[in-house]
Amino acid sequence: MSSGKIAVLAHLHQRGPATPGDVAAAEHQQPKSLTRVFAELEEAGLVERSPSGTDGRRSILTITTAGSEALVADLAGRDEWLAGALAGLSTTEIGVLHLAAGLMERLAEGDAS
Predict the structure, then answer these.
(1) For residues 96 and 90, what is the distance between their CA atoms, to the nearest angstrom?
(2) CA 21 to chain centre
(3) Could you say which of 39, 50, 54, 81 has the lowest number of CB atoms within 10 Å?
(4) What residues contact 40, with CB distance under 8 A and at least 6 apart?
(5) How far apart are CA 97 and CA 82, in angstroms?
(6) pTM (predicted TM-score)
(7) Is 32 helix (H, G, I), strand (E, B) or coil?
């Protein structure tokens, strides 16, 4: 599954139903950039689109049971691949990855000092 589809499914799985605009904003994208992703996920039965109860121009995306299962399966496959890749690294290389992960977390939190 593409990273865009995984990102949308993960957002809906973690945060619950949302408008396409909310999902796009959370992913730092324009809603139009994800239009095809939303449509493909809906066509595959991984998300459902329903009208907003408060604004007839807006829709709400909800992950389906099949969408949650597809997300879990895809992430499990990625985890399995990563575990295999990490198994071939030396202790020093693993240490370097730990340092890099800490730096990436600090950057993501906006603390570059």
Answers:
(1) 10
(2) 15
(3) 54
(4) 5
(5) 13
(6) 0.77
(7) helix
Q: Give the whole-angstrom CA distance, residue 33 versus residue 24.
A: 8
Tokens 């121009």 sit on residue = 57
Q: Which amino acid, 31?
A: P
| Residues 6 or more apart in contact with residue 17 via CB below 8 angstroms | 60, 61, 62
Instruction: List the structure tokens of 22.
Output: 């909310």
Distance CA 81, CA 25 (A): 30
Chain segment 67-110, per-residue pLDDT in tens:
999 999 999 999 999 999 999 999 999 999 999 999 999 998 88
Q: Residue 103 and residue 44: Cα distance in Å, rounded?
A: 38
Task: List CB contacts of 54: < 8 A, sequence separation 6 or more.
Answer: none
Instruction: Write down the pLDDT at residue 79.
Output: 94
Cβ atoms of 61 and 13 closer than 8 Å: no
Tokens of residue 102, six digits: 């800490």
Domain 3-80 part of CATH 1.10.10.10: yes
